[in-house]
Automatic annotation (TrEMBL):
Its main location: cytoplasm. It is found in: Cytoplasm. This is Importin N-terminal domain-containing protein. The keyword Transport applies. Belongs to the importin beta family. Importin beta-1 subfamily. It comes from Spirodela intermedia. One of its GO terms (molecular function) is small GTPase binding.
Amino acid sequence: MAIEVTQVLLSAQSIDGAVRKHAEESLKQFQEQNPTGFLLSLSNELANNDKPVDSRKLAGLVLKNALDAKEQYRKYELVQRWLSLDAAVKAQVKGCLLQTLSSPAIDARSIASQVIAKIAGIELPQSQWPELISSLLSNIHQPHVKQATLDTLGYVCEEVSPEVVDQDEVNKILTAVVQGMSASEGNTDVRLAATRALYNALGFAQANFANDMERDFIMRIICEATLSPEVKIRQAAFECLVSISSMYYEKLSSYMQDIFNITAKAVREDEEPVALQAIEFWSSICDEEIDILDEYGGDFTADSDIPCFYFIKQALPALVPMLLETLLKQEEDQDQDEGVWNIAMAGGTCLGLVARTVGDDIVPLVMPFIQKNINEPEWRQREAATYAFGSILEGPSPDKLIDVVKHALSFMLTALMKDPNNHVKDTTAWTLGRIFEFLHGSTMETPVITHENCQQILTVLLHSMKDVPNVAEKACGALYFLAQGYENMGSGSPISPFFKDVVQALLHVTHREDAGESRLRTAAYETLNELVRCSTDETASTVMQLVPVIMAELHKTLEAHEKQNELQGLLCGCLQVIIQKLGSAEPTKYAFMQYADQIMDLFLRVFASRHATVHEEAMLAIGALAYVTGPNFSKYLEGFYPYLEMGLQNFEEYQVCSITVGVVGDLCRALEEKILPFCDGIMTQLFKDLSSNELHRSVKPQIFSCFGDIALAIGENFEKYLTYAMPMLQSAAELSVRASVTDDDMSEYTNQLRNGILEAYSGIFQGFKSSPKTQLLMPFAPHILQYLDSLYMEKDMDEAVMKTAIGLLGDLADTLGSKAALLIGQSVSSKGFLDECLSSDDHLIKESADWAKLAISRAVSG
C-alpha cells in the first residue's frame, strides 16, 4: 500500500474537487479497514526523505488527527485506541517520528515535532515512553536537528502537565533550552526555537525559579534575548517575560528595574509586535496586583501567602508617561476596524489597568497630559487626551474624579457634536459611556447627571446616533450605560419624558442602510433592551406599543427571501426583554396577554429556520413567555414540544441544548402538573443526554438540576423515574466527591456538578412531601446523608453548594420526618456542617441553615 499512499496523499491535495474527495474517502477507508497498517504507512511516509514533501506533510497531519480531536469524547476515543495498539507498532511509529526530526525537509520535521508531542501527551501520564526526553536531548548537537528537537521539547511541554516529568529531566530540558537561547548560539532559527520552547517550559520550572542562582541565570538569558537583532526572537523573549509576570510574580522584585528599562526601550523604539508584548508585561503585572488586592482587600500581614509588591505603584512616575506617549501612535483608520490592536490601544488598555491597580494616584499624573492635548489642532493629540481620560475612569474614587468629570462633561458633549475628526468623536462617545458606567447611578452621592443636563446629553447622543457607524455604535453604548444608571429609580427617571423619542431613534438606527457595519444594529438592539429593562411604570405604555412593532419586524424577516438569522436573533432577544418587563407587573401583564398567541406563533416559525443562534434567543424568549403566561402556556405545548425535543438532542451546538434544559425548568415552574403528559419524552431525552459522551460536560449539572424542577412540578408522579434517576445521581455524586481538582476551571465545574445534584435531590424530596409515597425515598437517604458528610469533610465547597447542601438536609428531614431521625442523628452534617452554616456571614446560607435546624428538630422530636 506504500506507493499508493503517496499518490493518495498527493491526490487529497488536488485542486480538482472530485479527485480530492475520492482520495479522502480512500484514506478514511484505509484507516477503518486496517488501522495498524494505516498508522505505519503514514509514519513511514513521513520518515522517508525520498518522498515528496507535500505527501509527507499531509501524512504527518493525518497522523496528528488520528491522535487528537477538539471534542472531548472523540479525543478520549482516539487516546484509548492508541493505548490499545500493539507495543511493537507504537514503537515503530515513534521510531519513524524521531528519525524524521533529522530530515533535511523543514516541513516534515515540523509536523513530526507536533505528532511526537501528541503521543507524549497520551503516554507520559501513563508512565510510558520514559526514554523520550533523553532520546530527544541526545539529538541536540547538529544545527537542523537541534532546532527540530527544541521545537519538539516546546510542544511536549505544551501537551503534558508538569507533574508527569521528573525534576531531573526538567533540569536537562531547561539546560538545553537556555543554551539554545544564549547569545553565543549562531543559528537564529535555533535561538528562536529555544526561546519559544522556554515559553512552554516555564510551568515546569517551579523548582528552578525557587533557586536564586538558577532563576538569575534564566532571567539574564531572557533579558539578553530581548536585545537580539532578530525581531521574532525579541518578541518571543518578551512573551516569556509576560508569562513569568503571572507565573512567578512573587520572584520578580530584584529584576523590575532592568525589566522596566528594556520594556520602556522596546515600547519607544522597537517594532510593533515587540512593543505590544512589552506593554503586555505591565498589563499582566496589573492583572496580578488587581487580583491580589481584590482577594486580600489590602490587609497584608507578614505571613500573607502572596503579598503584593506594589510594582505598579513604584513604577508609576515613569510608567504613566511611557504609556501616555503610546496613545499618540494611533493608526489612521483604527476606528473603522473592529479587530484592530495596535500600540495606542494596548497603551490605553494598560493605562486603564494601572488606574484600577493604583486608584487615585494616577489622576494627577494623567491630568496634565489631558489639559495639554485636549484642544490641540492635531487630531491625534485631542484623541489621545480623550482616550487617556476615558481609560482612568475605573479605579480612582468618585470623589477624586467628580469635579473633573463635571467640568469635562459639557466639553465632551460639544466635541461629540462638533469635532471635525471621526476618531476623536468615536473616542469621545466611548469616554462618555465610561463616565455613565462608572460615575452614574443610585450609589453616587453627587450625581454627574441631573434633570438639568440629562436633556442635553440625550440630544447629543441621539444626534450622534445619526453619525458614521462607528461613532453611532459608541453613542448607543453610552446611552446603554446612561439608562442602566436609572435602573433602581422607581419613578421619576430623567429619561422618562424623552423615552418615546429615544426608542424611535434606536429603531431608526436599526433600519439604517449601513447598520451592518461596526456592530451598529446589534448595539442599537442591546441599548433598546437595556432601556426597556430599566424603564419605569411611567413608560409602560410605550413599552407595550413596542410589542406589535417588534413582532412586525420579526414577521418581515420570516417572509424575506434571504436568510436573516442575525436579525431574527436580535428581535427574539428584544421580545424576551419586553415580555419579562411587561410580565413583571399585573396591569401590564394582563394587557400583554392579547399578544401571546401571535408571539408564540412567530417563535414556532423562527424554530423552523433551524439556526443555532436564533434558536438560543427564541428558546430564552419562550422561557420568558412561559413564566408570564403560567398554566395557560399548556395550550402551546403540543406545537412547541417537537422543537423542545430537538433542542435537547442538539449535542453539536451544546449552548442550544443548555438553554433548552433551562426552558424545561421554566415550563415546570409555569405549568406544574400540566407538564406531566410530556414528561416521559423529556425525561427519556435527559437520560440520553446524561449517558452521552458527545454532549459538552457543562450541560450535565443543569440536567440534574432539571430533574429537581420536574419532580417539584409533578410531585409523586416522579415515582416512575426514580429507578433511573437515582442511580445516575448517585454515581455522579460519588464522582463529584472524588474529582481531582487540577485547576480553577475544574474546581468551578465540580461545584456546578455538586450544585446540580443537590438541587435534583432537593426537588425530588420537596416534590414527594405530604405524599403517601415518601417511603419510596427512604432507601436513598443513607447515601444522600453520606454524600453531604463527604462534601463537608472535603472542605472545598463554594457558597452556592453550601447553601444548597444545607437546604437539602432540611428538605430530607422535612419530607421523611421521624423515619429518618436516626440516620440524621448519625450524620456529621447534622452537627458540624449545620453549626458552620448557622454561623455563616452569608445570610442566604444562614437562612437555609435556620430552616434545616427547624426541620431536623421536628423530625427528631416527631
